[in-house]
Amino acid sequence: MSIEQLLEKRERLLGPNNPLFYDEPLHLVKGEGVWVTDADGRRYLDCYNNVPCVGHCHPRVVDAICRQAGELNTHTRYVHVNILTYAEKLLATFDPTLNRMMLGCTGSEANDIAMRMAKLWTGGEGIICTNATYHGNTDLVMRLSSLFGPTDDQTGTIEMVPWPDSYRALNGLKGEALTDAYVAEIDRAIERFSQAGVKLAGMLVCPIYANEGLPNIPDGYLARAVAAVRAAGGVFIADEVQSGFGRTGRLWGHEGQGVVPDILTLGKPMANGHPVSAVVARGELIDHFRSNVMYFNTFGGNPVSCAAALAVLEVIEEEGLVANAESVGRHVLEGFNALKARHDLIGDVRGKGLFFGMDLVLDRDRKTPAPKETSRVVNEMRRRGVIMSSIGEHGNVLKMRPPLPFSKANADQLIGTLDDVLGDL
Q1: Which of the two residues, 233 and 155, has the higher pLDDT score?
Q2: Which of 100, 227, 245, 315 is 20 to 30 A removed from 61 (C-alpha atoms)?
Q3: Residue 231 sits in a domain of what CATH number?
Q4: Last residue of a domain, which of 273, 288, 318?
Q5: Mutual orientation of helices 408-424 and 321-342 as an angle, nearest 10°?
Q6: Distance set, CA 260 to CA 218, 230, 238, 248, 337 (Å)
Q7: Is the domain of 224 the same as that of 328?
Q8: Domain check: are 170 and 84 in the same one?
Q9: Do 19 and 99 fall within a single domain?
């Protein structure tokens, strides 16, 4: 069938407004490493999909899935060694205080459970998040997810604070004064809860603020924000669904921020595309939750998912993919900064490991967002064989997070193609 026929059938069977990337949607049929192939046999360099974090169809992960699926797959109300082997290996990568885990299927589920856990532990209901974020699509979590449209929280239990941006800085401040200003927003949110008689449960943020546009976080901000939340009786939930598993050149996104979460959530790249997620937390929080809530997930922690997730951890370690993310990431940032010197459309470049944001502007002095131009760049890159997307409060940040085996040769193709597109634009 033609792409037009497929799209007609898609809408007829699935309904309208199912989001698709690009003005000319891609019909992908195959993936290998950092490459995807469409139905016409054309290959594209994948600079967007962090779900297949160790590379599309990694043979080690495929083999683990096939072997376990050929033996047994059932839920966790039977004893199986896979979940224990995986839990032991995963938990060993965290601070020793993070010594329990629960498995689910999606990042949305993980964030939902984390919020329920925080509320039960603290006896509070109030949750602090940012004003331009996304944490999932359950009813509870969607109330926080303002990035893709207005939320409709009628409960009075959510306070949204400005995300910490050093580029379009709050009140034009810099340095410690900027950190002070953003922390003051946390303090004000806590005070508003107090005045409304709402007890604070905690704060849920991505430790690298990925959906907000991957900003350069003001020095010391997150540690001070977390300290304020804890002083008010709340807990810190780190949404590591995008930032985890080596993405930032460290194994976990919160590392280097000067703070250890009370609870953290994992998803997307956890099993290289097999649906699995996790909540990792201080033992007493999970023990308290388990003692008071009958939580059961039919597919969470099944033997096949755990086999896939274990293979991913082993591949990351054995292939040195965290170090690769750090070194290739530096190479990409050097190239992007060289592009910034040549193209006025680039207002700001930022990145951590193999996660990049490029803020496109109409005017560098005014830092005027350029969402239409951003969309044009994304679509033209797709036409030239490189796939990426956009994100951010204004929809003007190019978002790139390629699979972790991304090489310097791949990086040079990305940089060169982007240079050509920006020049033509």
Answers
A1: 233
A2: 100
A3: 3.40.640.10
A4: 318
A5: 20
A6: 18, 12, 9, 16, 32
A7: no
A8: yes
A9: no
pLDDT digits (tens, 9 = 90+) for 363-401: 999 999 999 999 999 999 999 999 999 999 999 999 999
Quote the number of domains for the chain: 2
Q: Say which amino acid occupies 116.
A: R
Which domain CATH number covers 401? 3.90.1150.10
- 185-189 contacts at long range (C-beta below 8 A, 24 or more positions apart): 185/161, 186/128, 186/161, 186/225, 186/228, 186/229, 187/228, 188/161, 189/128, 189/159, 189/160, 189/161
Q: Dihedral sign for Cα 62, 105, 144, 175, please.
A: negative
How many CB atoms lie under 10 A from the CB of residue 287?
A: 12
pTM of the complete model: 0.96
In the predicted model, what is the mean pLDDT of residues 156-176?
95
Domain region containing 358:
3-54+321-424
The whole-angstrom separation of Cα 6 and Cα 13 is: 10
pLDDT bin (cut points 50, 70, 90) of residue 152 is low
Spell out the SS3 assignment of 168-191: CCHHHCCHHHHHHHHHHHHHHHHH
In this structure, the answer to whether residues 126 and 163 fall within a common structural domain is yes
Per-residue pLDDT reduced to its tens digit, 3-62: 999 999 999 999 998 889 999 999 999 999 999 999 999 999 999 999 999 999 999 999
